[in-house]
């Protein structure tokens, strides 16, 4: 049985919007936030735009000279798994479709950067107070984070709503059709 046909418009719309928004905002950041690593205050010190390139993964995880290639392969593997999750999604399951589309769109957005340049993924959203800052991120990172949280919530909910197997009380005597009087 083919699943997910009713989910197709939502899935592809969200995925494409995330990828386009990510590519456009990164291009704007690369051309307007120069020189690198110089904060541009947006909402005081709390929200700034600061151009940095991340050759690793989330939170600066770096695996040496081959990080770019390792993360490209890991992203391709994750997209394969997400594709299977999408195909297994019931028609009309909006939350699961949305979650998978967000993660896929974000993963593709960052994959484009890894393919495009060895410098790494363009990050520019800088949030924090003083020297206490969250690692700089981008639109794709937000989509992956929100989508992953939503997907975990949806999958956890699915796990808790599946019908339970009938329980057998092994301590109770077996029921028979005759009486022992």
Helices, strands, pairings?
Elements: H1 8-32, E1 40-43, E2 47-54, H2 67-87, H3 94-116, E3 121-129, E4 132-133, H4 139-161
Antiparallel strand pairs: 1-2, 2-3, 3-4
Helix pairs in contact: 1-3, 2-3, 3-4
Question: What does this protein look like?
Answer:
It is globular and about 50 Å long. The chain has four helices and four strands. With 181 residues, it is α+β, with helices and mostly antiparallel strands. The chain has a four-stranded antiparallel beta sheet.
Cα distance, first to last residue?
55 Å
What is the number of beta strands? Answer: 4
Coarse structural class: alpha+beta
Q: How many separate helices?
A: 4
Return the string of H and E elements: HEEHHEEH
Percent of residues in helical segments? 40-55%
The dominant shape is: globular
Largest sheet geometry: 4 strands, antiparallel
Strand content: 5-15%
For the biggest β-sheet, the strand order reads 1-2-3-4
**Which residues sit in consecutive blocks of at least 5 with pLDDT less than 50?**
none
Count of the separate structural domains:
1
Question: What does the average pLDDT come to?
Answer: 88
Radius of gyration: 23 Å
